[in-house]
Amino acid sequence: MEPRLVESTRGLTLLGGGALGPGDLEAALTQAPDLVAADSGAAAALAAGHMPLRVIGDMDSLAPGDQARLAPGVLHRVTEQDSTDFDKVLRSVAGPVAVGVGFMGARADHQLANLSALVRHRHLPCLLLGEGDVVFAAPPEIEVAAAPGTRVSLFPLAPVSGVSEGLHWPIAGLPMAPAGLHGTSNRVAEGATSVRLAFARPGMLVIMPRAALGSAVAALRAAPLWRRGAAPAG
């Protein structure tokens, strides 16, 4: 395990070098003020007038000129090539919650690897913000405030089952799996003001509209973590 280079009490914004939409970075910083960049995400941070607390990655895509603009001690090079820069960041930081921007949409293979990392690094509740979605790995239990009709898609990255309250189509008794049953385009039931989810083991991704960013971050802050050693099935 990498040393914890940043331990935040306020929440972490993790900035990658992928697609970054208008307002993405500021929206994330509003929810999680401590900024950490992954490799070339540092260039986007500097361009927006922000100095990251740390820049973590293999530095294969951060220009030497941008590296030279970083404050002393900020850059932390991780040379191994068996993981993405997002993975390197997640295993090197800690905090009550994290919001990742610049990790969705640029390349399908990178996005899939980043979604997998959300499930693998369960010490840090982390949400990825994309153009139209927010995505997070479900903790053991969570309650997210949301209006009736709000999309709540569930996609398993491992065989997993759970229970729900407030979903239009309840999930109790449904064995879900990546190549089997999943919960695309479920939604908040009429008359409900929140969705409660509980899962038997890690492995479920929750996907909601971008407008749910604030309520999803608040829910992740309040949710319990998986116990040490809990692992996806399969």
Q: Which terms would index this structure?
A:
234 residues, 3-stranded antiparallel β-sheet
Number of H- or I-type helical stretches: 6
Helix content: 10-25%
**Which band does the percent of strand residues land in?**
15-25%
- Compute the CA-based radius of gyration: 17 Å
Distance between the termini: 23 Å
Main beta sheet strand tally, sense and closure? 9 strands, mixed
Shape: globular
pLDDT under 50 segments (min length 5)?
none
Number of strands: 14
Element order, helices and strands?
A: EEHEHEHEHEEHEEEEEEEH
Describe this structure in words.
This protein has 234 residues and is an alpha/beta fold. The protein is 21% helix and 25% strand. The strands form three sheets. A nine-stranded mixed sheet has the order 5-4-3-2-7-8-9-14-11. It has a three-stranded antiparallel sheet with strand order 10-13-12. A two-stranded parallel ribbon has the order 1-6. Strand 2, helix 1 and strand 3 form a beta-alpha-beta unit.
